[in-house]
């Protein structure tokens, strides 16, 4: 039996599920693939994932199949991955913009270690 893969970023409205049959497997989105995409692509993908999650939640209330209920967790993880990549890209752009400046915003502290960050917080006035 061959399992066909259904990627979560495929548009559910344009897909032909009859062609897939009952043997399809949900594949989580790979983060390294997300990092290569642009900001607009990520936002479009986020909208599609949220629509799919809303459809799955409606199916859950209506007593849908078990395979749909098990996809909810994967969808939530995929949304979290997309949001994480978006925020990482925004923070990287901010770091690049402030790399040559003398003063940094308070939400861009250096990574360092936890023990070193504690006295830094006192120094910064927290």
From TrEMBL:
Protein's UniProt keywords contain S-adenosyl-L-methionine: no
Q: Supply the CDD domains for this chain.
A: Ribosomal_L29_HIP
The UniProt transmembrane annotation reads: none
Output one GO BP term: translation
Instruction: Kindly name one Pfam family recorded for this protein.
Output: Ribosomal_L29
Q: Which domain of life is it from?
A: Eukaryota
- UniProt GO cellular component terms: cytosolic large ribosomal subunit
| Molecular function as annotated in GO | mRNA binding; structural constituent of ribosome
> Is Transmembrane among this UniProt entry's keywords?
no
InterPro entries to which the protein is assigned, alphabetical: Ribosomal_uL29 (IPR001854), Ribosomal_uL29_euk (IPR045059), Ribosomal_uL29_sf (IPR036049)
Keywords in alphabetical order: Ribonucleoprotein, Ribosomal protein
HAMAP family cross-referenced by the UniProt entry: Ribosomal_uL29
| Entries under NCBIfam families matching the protein | L29
Assigned protein family:
Belongs to the universal ribosomal protein uL29 family.
> What name does UniProt use for this protein?
60S ribosomal protein L35 isoform X2
Task: Give the organism, scientific name.
Answer: Cinnamomum micranthum f. kanehirae
List the lineage, top down.
Answer: Eukaryota, Viridiplantae, Streptophyta, Embryophyta, Tracheophyta
């Amino acid at each position: 039996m061959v399992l066909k893969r259904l990627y979560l970023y495929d548009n559910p409205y344009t897909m032909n599920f009859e062609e897939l049959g009952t043997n399809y497997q949900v594949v989580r989105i790979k983060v390294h693939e997300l990092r290569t995409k642009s900001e607009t692509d990520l936002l479009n993908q986020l909208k599609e994932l949220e629509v799919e999650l809303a459809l799955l939640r409606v199916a859950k209330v209506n007593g849908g199949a078990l395979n749909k209920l098990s996809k909810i967790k994967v969808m939530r993880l995929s949304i979290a991955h997309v949001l994480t990549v978006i925020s990482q890209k925004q923070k990287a752009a901010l770091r690049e913009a402030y790399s040559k400046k003398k003063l940094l915003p308070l939400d861009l502290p250096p990574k360092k270690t936890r023990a070193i960050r504690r006295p830094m917080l006192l120094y910064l006035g927290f």
